[in-house]
Amino acid sequence: MIALQRLNGEQFVLNSDMIEYIESTPDTIVFLNNGKKYLVKNTIEEVVRKAVKYRQLCGQALQVVNREKA
User: Fold this and answer.
1) Closest of 20, 18, 27 to residue 54, by C-alpha
2) What is the pTM of this model?
3) Whether residue 62 has pLDDT greater than 90
4) What is the CA angle 27-34-54, rounded to 5?
5) Which CATH architecture has domain 2-69?
6) Domain-wise residue ranges, the chain
């Protein structure tokens, strides 16, 4: 889950696994694989960076669990 900001400044949390693609026209639009789309203040680079960081954190947590089982 990543925190994003709507154009009015309101924050919301989005499941980054649902992102299909992102456009900048010049506002950033996040398109989800269920057909929904969100207009956000964040840049494309910010959204991608947050999604990558989230996935890295998930991967680290899995590695810790695997080490404990070994």
Assistant:
1) 18
2) 0.79
3) no
4) 70
5) Beta Barrel (2.40)
6) 2-69
